[in-house]
Specification:
Family: Belongs to the ABC transporter superfamily.
Strand content: 15-25%
Strand order of the largest sheet: 6-7-8-3-9-10
Order of helices and strands: EEEHEEHEHHHEHEHEEHHHH
Bound molecules: adenosine-5'-triphosphate
Keywords: ATP-binding, Nucleotide-binding, Transport
Largest sheet: 6 strands, mixed
Pfam families: ABC_tran (PF00005)
Helix content: 40-55%
CATH architecture of the largest domain: 3-Layer(aba) Sandwich
Radius of gyration: 20 Å
CATH class of the largest domain: Alpha Beta
CATH superfamily of the largest domain: P-loop containing nucleotide triphosphate hydrolases
GO molecular function, one term: ATP hydrolysis activity
Shape: globular
Organism: Streptomyces paludis
């Protein structure tokens, strides 16, 4: 187990972003799904140690991050790509990723090679000495991924990493995620369920600060399979409306089914009493 949260509540003034959730993450790629405002970014920011919980406990890489020294030590072993990532536009790709390596207190002798490897892994080797401000939006996003992986993190946290990537880059990026996830814990928040289907072994679906679903990607897809009836497996004869109402592919249908089940439970009298 690399990361865990226990009874985690996160508040933004009067808004409850996460409402007493329990989650554990081990080696592999975990997808974090949920509608806008579900709490994905709030969870990633707590795991990245940049935001503090209102209540609850966070365990990261064997340490309790409530303690300052533990937190500093954990940060050196983390990789984090925020949803909006700040960079110095005048820096070249090499300079920027080296700067992050320095912030993470990597051994100076290891930095040049680690930077080249990270930049190569995101497919930007031919742009390494180009200024970040000269790159396209998708390339800047890839620089963001490079800075997150430069220290070969044991825990990699990516908030909407595929936003702005074109389809070919997304396919390459998913392969990179699977590669990193073979030895590390990767938690990736996304709105693109097809990224989850392609790259993630496990899925956590958040809804209004609660866990609506937790399981394997296959479990989620299975939820979208109706048991009986003419819409059970939309064949060539199924109407477009019947298919698109709950999703166009197995994972979208699973996502919709899990959300609807969670909402129905929350609206039921026993749920309303919580
Ligand atoms: N800085 C803030 N100030 C006030 N409320 C906030 C702040 N950040 C988040 N919230 C609220 O907390 C809740 C959870 O937001 P969060 O950004 O974690 O969700 P999300 O699942 O990442 O959403 P999205 O998919 O839109 O990025 C939402 O109701 C949001 O409006």
């Amino acid at each position: 187990m690399t990361a865990a949260v226990h009874s985690l509540t996160v508040r933004h003034r009067r808004t409850v972003a996460l409402d007493g959730i329990d989650l554990r993450f081990g080696t592999g790629v975990h997808g974090l799904l949920g509608p806008n405002g579900a709490g994905k970014t709030s969870l990633i920011r707590v795991l990245a140690t940049v935001a503090a919980p209102a209540t609850g406990r966070v365990e990261l890489l064997g340490g309790d991050i409530a303690e300052h020294r533990e937190r500093a030590a954990v940060r050196r072993r983390l990789g984090y790509l925020p949803q909006e990532f700040g960079y110095y536009p005048g820096f070249t790709v090499r300079e920027f990723v080296s700067y992050v390596a320095w912030l993470k207190e990597m051994r100076p002798a290891d930095v040049p090679e680690a930077v080249e490897r990270a930049v190569e892994r995101v497919g930007l080797a031919d742009r390494i000495d180009v200024k970040v401000k000269r790159l396209s939006g998708g390339m800047v996003r890839r620089v963001g991924i490079a800075q997150a992986i430069v220290n070969d993190p044991e825990l990699l946290l990516l908030d909407e990493p595929t936003a702005g990537l074109d389809p070919e880059q997304r396919v390459e990026f998913r392969a990179l995620l699977r590669d990193i996830g073979a030895a590390s814990t990767v938690i990736v928040s996304t709105h693109l369920v097809e990224d989850v289907a392609a790259a993630c072994a496990e899925v956590t679906l958040l809804e209004s600060g609660r866990v609506a679903f937790r399981g394997t990607t296959t479990d989620l897809m299975d939820l979208g399979k109706p048991d009986t009836g003419p819409e059970a497996t939309p064949g060539p004869g199924a109407s477009a409306a019947a298919v698109t109402d709950s999703g166009d592919n197995p994972i979208e249908r699973g996502y919709t089914a899990a959300l609807r089940a969670h909402r129905a439970k929350a609206a039921a009298p026993s749920g309303a009493a919580r």
